[in-house]
## 1
Amino acid sequence: MKKLISTACIALAALSATAAKKAPADSTGFQFKDIKVVPCTPVKDQNKSGTCWSFAGTGLMEHEVLRRTGKTVDLSEMWVVRHCYDDKADKYVRMDGTINFAQGGSTLDVPYVIDLYGIVPEEAYPGLEYGETKHDHYELEPVLSGIVNAVNDRKGKKSTAWKQAFASTLDAYFGQRPATFVVDGVTYTPQEYAKALGLSGDDFIAVTSYTHHPFYTQFPVEVADNWLWAPYWNVPMEEMKAIVDNALENGYSVAWAADVSEPGFKWKDGFAVLPKEKSEKDMEGTELARWVKLSDKERKAEQEKITGPREELTVTQQMRQDMFDSHETTDDHGMIIVGKAVDQNGTPYYKVKNSWDTNQIYDGYLYVSEPFFLAKTIDIYVNKEAVPAEIAAKLK
């Protein structure tokens, strides 16, 4: 394993400590400079579907193939979604509807599908059999929910037909699953293709950081979309960050599940920060006179206005835990961390690849501050080789 933090990352940390003191309350805007970016496949568009988890996990696998072989592949997100709907429905009925059944999922659903069912290229299974050119599951989800809820509403013995009806509905919307397909003149089954690409869930590790479970043990993160009840390793937040830093320094991208409903998450503007709220001490002269006349709603909007780098919260493990316990931090979205950058003050950020198309200031990428990452990360998923040796030893 590589050293915990490279010389380059240490230098970035030093820049961060200095920049925190110099960041102006309001500058003319953000100016980002990429410092390290790992090889990536193109940004995709989940459009009107709650399948970010599949785009993040599948994108991570594409990056893994690219990292190891230099070959760009385009894998089918809807292949993963289709299989998860089947297995999620079965579990939902077995649990009498007491677990979550929705579009959402976990990044860990992707290796689950790859290990059990294999993987296929996008062209073999685009999952668009319902008259649209982009993904739109607004109709699909209530149709599928109607089937499983009707089954659960029936007390006692269930019919023998519902699974076939459910699968037929998925076929109608996504298309029938191919038994074989051809890539570069070679015929594969989905399992053979996964093996040919060298993809296996055994090569990856899921990590989180919360104090309601002991550190260096595993537990299923208690969010509704973790329908698999998949386990995550629990480490202190500084070590979770060290895993990401080490991964990026050594050419690995990191799948990232996070809360994006925060006022400081500005997708169109391409950044996510966790600023301290402005107070009356921040307002001077006529600005203070204006401040005291604002309504509560207007004050909140003023506090949340972000026009450039400004002082951010210092995040502690307890603060992170309190936000999760109170549901201030919510499990909203899956993306991929692909690099590091600095703003005009030298403050470090993570560069993140999203799945909301490219019609945005940074063509589908955004820059996430370290405080935002520390506070609002639900979990990460990364190749085991990217975990620093001293942390891996604690996880045995």
Note: The longest helix spans residues 52-69.
## 2
Amino acid sequence: MANLFDYLKWRGDLSLEQTPINDIDSLILSRLSYLPFDGIVPPSCTDTITIAEAARDLLNRETLEDELIMKADLPFLHEVGASRRFANMRLCGYTNQVDPNAEKQFAALVIRVAPLYSYVSYRGTDLSLAGWKEDFNMSFCTPVPAQIDAVTYLNEVATTLRGRLFVGGHSKGGNLAVYAAAFAKPEVQERILFVHNHDGPGFDACVLESEGYRRISERIKTFIPQSSVVGMLLQHEEDYYVVHSTQIGLMQHDLFSWEVDRDQFVYLDEVDEHSRFVDHTLKTWLTQVSPEQREQFVDALFSILEETNASSLKELTANWHKNAIIVLKSIRSMDDEMRHNISQALRLLFEAAKQTVRGSIQRNAPKPKFLQQRRPQKK
């Protein structure tokens, strides 16, 4: 089954003049913001570097493999840097901020696709615990710091960039792309051609009902794999498209597993039972647990993890045996009220799952609006 690497071989030699930008190109450009271009891609948009040059410089970095979030990013970097379609696109505006005290993780860059077209790419969650804490904070807080930064970033780079804008991201990056487009200045919104959310979580009602979101909503497309978990979180109003992934369960969030057919994704009619189960369970849980309880639960969970002194998932798992002992000791030493709050939240989550198993989702029941989008017609 074909994936992004096959697309780069099939279409990598075709310029944008020969075949215009498509949904798979958008996924590739959204992945570029995950690469650790610190010190390589200029932070401003007045200076630029080609993808080929940036790839060469990054591949020469001795610590590269330790810095990559996914192993597949290494061959991806090779392929994109050597591709005629992408090699001469220019990168600029790189920013990468992780602030544990502010519970913020934000990174983005701009790809100058053509002289009058630019793609604003937002990075999803990296391996930092600060980034994961911020993701959890989305369940009870809007906006989180990265969403505020995403709006500021889009407005600022737009003042330097000429022409039309594409905005996109994967995972939390997709959420940031939609949020930034919804709350950007009206004159910036007018320049946006499309916003692509690749399996990123949704929003609460205050965002979906905002004037800015309504202005941009028809230009938003969300792509999720058939067993999506991350992309089904919170609420969506925009069109969505189900992409076939060759992975199973949560691993389908890996965009390198998404199947392609020439210059489009392989689409399915709807998400599978697993995705609907998770969607229903989490939404049931969120209605039973107040925002204050969610905040207490998240704070307690990450305060336990902080006891390990790990700042990233890599550090946490590298010393898992030692850290597991620390975590267990931290739980035992918690006061009665905090233990009760965590136990209560987990009990409600398990109860929501049991309700779903008992048949609260009927196969023939009307689907929520977000689950009524059909696969796009082939051109």
Note: The domain at 4-275 is CATH 3.40.50 (Rossmann fold).
